[in-house]
Write a structure and sequence with these properties.
This protein is mainly β. The chain has one domain. The chain has no helices and five strands. It has strands spanning 4-10, 17-23, 28-34, 41-48, 54-60. The N and C termini lie far apart (36 Å).
Length: 63
């Protein structure tokens, strides 16, 4: 079973929409990943909803 889901997010720095892969085998996770466009660090907070879809919140690392 593939626990990865593609999600589109907007970079909090440059505003570009990027596609990321979320590992839905983990119920809650926080991590930092660089933007694929501007290379700045995005702070990700991911929570799985009851239907199994991820809710992804992104913030600037300096917020």
């Amino acid at each position: 079973m593939n626990d990865l889901k593609s999600v589109k997010i907007r970079c909090p720095y440059c505003g570009e929409t990027i596609k990321i892969e979320i590992d839905c085998s983990v119920e809650q996770q926080s991590y930092i990943e660089d933007c694929q466009v501007c290379c700045r660090p995005i702070d990700f907070s991911v929570t799985l909803l009851e239907n199994g879809n991820p809710r992804v919140e992104v913030n600037r690392e300096d917020d």
